[in-house]
Design a protein that fits this description.
- The protein is of the alpha+beta class.
- It has two domains: 2-122; 132-151 and 153-251, SH3 type barrels, CATH 2.30.30.140.
- 48% of the residues lie in helices and 13% in strands.
- The chain is built from three helices and seven strands; from the N terminus they run αααβββββββ.
- The strands form two sheets. Strands 6-5-4-3-7 form a five-stranded antiparallel sheet, with no helix packed on it.
- The radius of gyration is 25 Å and the shape is flat.
Length: 258
């Protein structure tokens, strides 16, 4: 009976692998099509932007804003806004496709494990050098996608910094997900932590999160947070300001200590 169930699980896993591969191929084709549409929209909008620039140059030459130019510019800017929104919608759809592909790849990994194609019983990975690990963390932070807002179980956790016992099973309430998007301070400042807000942040050159206060939020999408880590070795109980990438700053539910 146990062998029969095992065989059924393997068959189901193989079928899931085939289904995932097929769907991933479809999504990649859709993603390629969306990227082509993005380039088309961009080319069209660039032509309109050139017309806006030329119109402004003519206005400067005549040194006046006539009703004709006012009406023409209003139409050009309306078109430019519509072009930007169309390109933005396509990019959102492309990001959704990428997220779905990533989810399917994880489902495929689990199915492969059940089917025996992949096994966690393989020899433990070698301990990663600290410098390499820090570089990977920084690269992950830099490649975090920028979120573009519109006008809303148990976990298996791999510990890559612990040799021989890399996997742990945790309940959802004991896991704080890292951000999936990078917030733009210029368009979505409310999505960022504000000054003196209590957070958990990744201490530089480590893989550990510690309590900290926001010293200054990012001013541009590529900027880091400036945070003050709790540190009793300093008179005021906090370290000097240190920079931490958006990806590695999360909410802390505990109250700020007095």
């Amino acid at each position: 009976m146990r062998r029969t169930l095992r065989g059924l699980c393997v068959v189901a896993a193989v079928m899931a692998l085939v289904s995932a591969d097929s769907r991933i191929a479809e999504l990649l084709a859709e993603l390629q099509r969306l990227l082509g549409h993005t380039q088309e929209e961009r080319s069209r909008s660039e032509h309109n932007l050139i017309n806006i620039q030329k119109t402004h140059e003519r206005m400067q030459t005549e040194n006046k804003i006539s009703p004709y130019y006012r009406t023409k510019l209003r139409g050009l800017y309306t078109t430019a806004k519509a072009d930007a929104e169309a390109e933005c919608n396509i990019l959102r759809k492309a990001l959704d496709k990428i997220a779905e592909i990533k989810s399917l790849l994880e489902e495929r990994r689990i199915a492969a494990k059940i089917a025996g194609i992949y096994s966690d019983a393989e020899p433990p990975r070698k301990t990663m050098r600290r410098g390499v690990l820090m570089t990977l963390l920084q690269q992950s932070a830099m490649t975090l996608p920028l979120w573009i807002g519109k006008p809303g179980d148990k976990y298996e956790v791999d510990d890559i910094d612990e040799e021989g016992k890399e996997r742990h099973t945790l309940s959802r309430r004991r896991v704080i997900p890292l951000p999936q998007w990078k917030a733009n301070p210029e368009t979505d400042p409310e999505a960022l932590f504000q000054r003196e807000q209590l957070v958990l942040a990744l201490y530089p050159q480590t893989t550990c999160f510690y309590r900290a206060l926001i010293h200054a939020p990012p001013q541009r999408p590529q900027d880091d947070y400036s945070v003050l880590f709790e540190d009793t070795s300093y008179a005021d109980g906090y370290s000097p300001p240190l920079n931490v990438a958006q990806r590695y700053v999360v909410a802390c539910k505990e109250t700020k200590k007095k």
